[in-house]
């Protein structure tokens, strides 16, 4: 159990010290991931940036993901589900365009540009506040690979065993502090898991500019 995202991030940073000599870049996933990544970036003065994958939802149930997309258009689709529900290619394409547009808006709001992180030949540490199915983050991982990262590390406080097993196959290393046998929602392992506000994100980003070459 973690007190909040800050506490989870402090615990996670202990496990990320070993990458200090590799001069990695930390890619935080807002909203909560930037709070979780804060201590690692600040403590080790790591280069950092943001990455925002977005889910592609069912037409009539926005909570259910049938795919995911990243900033550069890299996507992942649940083809079996799409075929079973007879979802049109037009809908999926339109939804992808909408989600990429939303990613760009958020990046411009948070960091002032919509550039893809410079990951070429670098060790990349992706940090989020927790993962459930891992479906959305796969789009981010796939896009980072396309941009020729040297190594990809996924660092998270909490995730279920089956998700960890799946993600371990597509990254170089997964660091997860707590892998419960019976998994519930990510938020159930935090005492405080209130939604991170834009103000908190802006405060953290302004603070991190002191510690990072991303300015």
Q: How would you describe the overall organization of this protein?
A:
Keywords: Glycosyltransferase, Transferase. The chain has 215 residues and is α/β, with parallel strands linked by helices. The chain is built from 7 helices and 8 strands. The protein has helices at residues 5-16, 32-44, 79-85, 89-111, 135-146, 161-167, 198-208; strands at 25-28, 47-50, 54-58, 61-69, 75-77, 123-127, 151-158, 173-178. The strands form 2 sheets. Strands 2-1-6-7-8 form a 5-stranded parallel beta sheet, sandwiched between helices. Strands 3-4-5 form a 3-stranded antiparallel beta sheet. The longest helix is centred in the middle third of the chain and has 23 residues, at 89-111. The model has no long low-confidence stretch (mean pLDDT 93).
Task: Describe the structure concisely for a colleague.
By secondary structure, the chain is α/β, with parallel strands linked by helices. It has helices at residues 5-16, 32-44, 79-85, 89-111, 135-146, 161-167, 198-208, and strands spanning 25-28, 47-50, 54-58, 61-69, 75-77, 123-127, 151-158, 173-178.
Number of domains: 2
Q: What ranges have pLDDT less than 50 throughout 5 or more consecutive residues?
A: none
Largest sheet: 5 strands, parallel
Tally of helical runs: 7
CATH architecture tag of the largest domain: 3-Layer(aba) Sandwich
- As a whole number of angstroms, the C-alpha radius of gyration is 17 Å
CATH fold category name of the largest domain: Rossmann fold
User: Strands of the largest sheet, in order across it?
Assistant: 2-1-6-7-8
Order of helices and strands: HEHEEEEHHEHEHEH
Helix content: 25-40%
Arithmetic mean of pLDDT: 93
Number of E strands: 8
Q: Which range does the strand content fall in?
A: 15-25%
- Report the principal-axis shape: globular
């Amino acid at each position: 159990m973690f007190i909040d995202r800050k506490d989870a991030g402090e615990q996670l940073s202990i496990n990320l010290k070993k990458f200090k000599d590799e001069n990695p870049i930390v890619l935080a996933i807002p909203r909560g991931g930037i709070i979780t990544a804060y201590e690692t970036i600040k403590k080790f003065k790591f280069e950092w940036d943001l990455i925002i994958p977005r889910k592609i939802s069912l037409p009539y149930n926005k909570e259910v993901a049938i795919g995911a997309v990243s900033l550069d258009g890299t996507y992942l689709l649940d083809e079996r589900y799409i075929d079973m529900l007879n979802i049109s290619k037009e809908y999926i394409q339109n939804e992808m365009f909408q989600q990429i547009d939303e990613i760009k808006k958020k990046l411009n709001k948070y960091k002032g540009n919509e550039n893809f992180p410079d990951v070429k030949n670098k060790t990349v540490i992706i940090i989020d506040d927790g993962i459930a199915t891992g479906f959305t983050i796969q789009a981010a991982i796939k896009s980072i690979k396309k941009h020729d990262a040297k190594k990809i590390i996924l660092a998270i406080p909490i995730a279920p065993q089956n998700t960890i097993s799946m993600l371990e196959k597509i990254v170089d290393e997964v660091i997860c502090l707590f892998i419960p046998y019976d998994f519930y929602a990510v938020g159930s392992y935090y005492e405080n898991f209130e939604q991170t506000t834009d103000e908190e994100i802006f405060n953290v980003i302004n603070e991190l500019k002191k510690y990072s070459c991303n300015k």
